[in-house]
Amino acid sequence: MTTMHRRGLLFGAAGLAAMAATRRPAYAQAPAGPFTLPALPYAPNANERAIDAMTMEIHHGRHHAAYVANLNAAVKDHSALAQMPVDEILMRLSQVPEAVRTAIRNNGGGHANHSMFWEIMGGEGGEPTGDLKAAIDRDLGGMEKFRTDFNTAGTRVFGSGWVFVAVTPGGNLSLVSKPNQDTPLMDGGRVLMGNDVWEHAYYLRYQNRRADYLTAWWNVLNWEKIAARYEAAKNGTLRV
User: Could you tell me which residue ranges the Manganese/iron superoxide dismutase N-terminal domain spans (predicted)?
Assistant: First the structure.
């Protein structure tokens, strides 16, 4: 008798349906508070060439939702912080009350990083054009070198973290790696794009093969969105 058949005898059809439901990731609603969970701008399976739908659902609906809920809890008794955009809070992290600074660093960083992450995917990969391509050629050595250096930086992140392209108001680009949910915003910079190398971002499909995940991720980038972020960074309107 198979394990599933024995479970069926024990729990019945209703029990099996309930068990199946517990394995299906809940698609979270935005947590209540001044900060909200942005909706995915595409279906969870839109990035299948690099990231499976279940990972997208869990990553967005559980991990990112938890960062937002925890950030709301951290600012609950700090009305000034509750009225500030998250990127401005992170750029002034040293001024945040010490009692909530770590919670805001971790959860505010997680909220900002993931909001950027969803935005720049859902595309067809390829390469950028125009001013963004010119900036990559100028500052990062061209696309081939950029991809290689970016992936290398991602594999070298010890434990959990991110690899970013930071951008200055003048449009200059640089590669930056950060641990945990830290972000170039904490150094006064802006984020053009970045990839999440926490295991929850890739483990269902890739297990310990982070390098394969980093390589596949380029196939789902939306270069139009990234180019729009580049222009916004130069004109001072880029948020997270």
Answer: 35-121
Residue 171 maps to which CATH number? Answer: 3.55.40.20
Would you say residue 202 lies in a domain?
Answer: yes
SS (H, E, C) 75-131: HCCCHHHHCCCHHHHHHCHHHCCHHHHHHHHHHHHHHHHHHHHHHCECCCCCCCCHH
Residue with tokens 């499976």: 52
pLDDT tens-digit profile of 101-154?
999 999 999 999 999 999 999 999 999 999 999 999 999 999 999 999 999 999
List binding-site positions for Mn(2+). 59, 114, 196, 200
Number of domains in the chain: 1
Annotation: binding site? 59, 114, 196, 200
Structural domain contains residue 168: yes
